[in-house]
Specification:
With 95 residues, the protein is α+β, with helices and mostly antiparallel strands. The protein has one domain. The chain is 39% helix and 16% strand. The chain has 4 helices and 2 strands. The chain has helices at 27-30, 33-40, 50-63, 82-92; strands at residues 9-15, 18-25. A two-stranded antiparallel ribbon has the order 1-2. A hairpin with a 2-residue loop joins strand 1 and strand 2 (18-25). The radius of gyration is 13 Å and the shape is globular. The two termini are 26 Å apart.
């Protein structure tokens, strides 16, 4: 997905409760997106759904300078270390 900073890639998996985001690759990492997706998701294929498309739109607006509220329910926080999770949740709590 294009952004003001370059191409972004959202790695997600469809779970029983809906899509679950496992990684968001930023432009510097995007060149490795195909390799990373194959390593992280053995059968990864390019796809989207309405929830992921909406997340992509919100990320683009946020990177464009707009104040945007993100929902952490679809994020696979189990992939984060304890420290990363604490920082993410603390940052999320800042209005």
């Amino acid at each position: 997905m294009p952004s003001p900073f370059g191409e972004l890639t959202i790695l997600w998996r469809q779970e029983s409760g809906g899509p679950e985001v496992h990684r968001i690759l930023l432009p510097k990492e995007a060149s490795r997106a195909e390799c990373a997706s194959r390593l992280a998701f053995f059968n990864a294929t390019p796809a989207s759904c309405s929830a992921i498309a909406d997340l992509g739109e919100r990320i683009q607006r946020h990177l464009g300078g707009e104040a945007v509220q993100f929902d952490l329910d679809a994020m696979a926080l189990g992939n984060c270390s304890g420290f990363q999770r604490k920082v993410l949740l603390a940052d999320y709590g800042i209005p």
